[in-house]
Amino acid sequence: MEDNNMPEEDLPFQFRDWAYLPPEVVELISKKVKSITDYVRFRAVCSTWRSASLPNPSHLPPQLPWLMLPFEPRPNETDPDEKNNGIRLLYDLWEGKMRRLYLPETIDMMCCASYHGWLLLVSVKGREVFLLNPLTRDRIQLPSFTSPVKLLGHDSDSHSFDVASCFDSYYGSFGMSTMTFSVDITDPNCLITVFIRPYRVICCRVGDPCWTKVLSRRNRYLIDATYYNGQFYLLYEEAMDIIKSNKPEERIVFNFEPELKGVRMHLLDGKSGIYVVAFHPDGNVEVYQFQEQPVKLKVTDTSNIIIFSGSIARPHLAICSDDWDSLDGDSIYMEDNGLFNVDESRRPHYSIFAFDRDANEIEHIVRNPGKKQHRWPPEPALWFQPSFM
């Protein structure tokens, strides 16, 4: 029979307070946590655990991307009058659930692009521009879009143009942007490149007084643009220009093969270089890897490549499936309004889904997650890899 009157020092271990674990033990346990959401929960247990674990852990493996949706959360069932100002919906692919994140920094701002865990926020008229880490709430101020813009390779701002007009309500479609970093954002040499459809490629470093424009072809529609390993890649309908950041006067022009002309294409910066994703009219999706010597595109093996797309027309990032055992390669994760998503009444609806290219199968993950935001310019859905760094 159990003795309930035993001395306190002889009580079973389960009755001891976990908050008083030695700090070195707490730190060892924290390094075993692999999910970024579990790590947040771990640090929220108590002040002792929070102080014994790192606020910016380096041990976490690459995280599955989250999708920030251009939707407002549905009213809280327990409080229908709850104000949703600043509350954003994010789909956590790791845990397969929708998250509500309070981000007051996004109020009256447009979330235009994302990269490596950072969001690019722009005020409606472009007067304020900054990067936001939605997990740490860290901000990095960038030059205003109302400032004069220099031309790459020139010290004068005589070639300035009004970037802010691209974010005017009349030119809503211009505000859909993509963004890349040359190196980690904490590096003072990090070059931040932003592509504003359909004609603008601009870049800056943290602390620069203004943006610098990368010269594109006059009167030619620019489909996509990115920066990788010291070079800008500018994608047009039938060709791609490669411009060195330190020698902008030198431009390599690569014309596509006839079978690729007129095909919808986009750029991805993967682990081993630049990829070109081609969406053929018959529904086939091919991934090409770009090679410089000699300049050519070659179809690459996609068995370990996953494409995360805001929609089928706007890929954002490619990763290697070796990072996560839970995901298979040769697949596309995306959100869309009705491309593959038509219910029995033939009415399109919004959903997030995964497309297995090898099996040619579509799996719907989330349908109609919330109330569509009525914003102009409209915001895109943004994939980003959550990070404390």
Your description of this structure?
The structure is a single chain. It contains 3 helices and 28 strands. It has helices spanning 23-30, 36-43, 47-52; strands spanning 66-68, 71-72, 87-92, 97-102, 109-115, 118-123, 129-132, 139-142, 150-151, 177-181, 192-196, 200-204, 212-213, 224-228, 231-235, 239-244, 251-255, 264-270, 273-279, 285-291, 296-299, 305-309, 315-320, 331-342, 348-356, 361-367, 371-372, 382-384. A hairpin with a 3-residue loop joins strand 11 and strand 12. It is mostly beta strands. The protein has a domain at 1-60. It is globular and about 70 Å long. The chain is 6% helix and 38% strand.
**Major sheet size, sense and barrel closure:** 5 strands, mixed
User: How far apart are the first and last residues' alpha carbons, in Å?
Assistant: 54 Å
How many helices? The count is 3
Beta-strand percent range: 35-45%
Return Rg in Å.
24 Å
Task: Label the overall shape.
Answer: globular
Structural class: mainly beta
Strand order of the largest sheet: 9-13-12-11-10
| Number of E-type strands | 28
Percentage of residues in helical conformation: under 10%
Which whole number gives the mean pLDDT? 77
Low-pLDDT segments: 170-174, 339-348
Considering the chains and any ligands shown, give keywords for the structure:
389 residues, mainly beta, 5-stranded mixed β-sheet, KIB1-4_b-propeller, F-box_BR-signaling, F-box family protein, F-box_dom
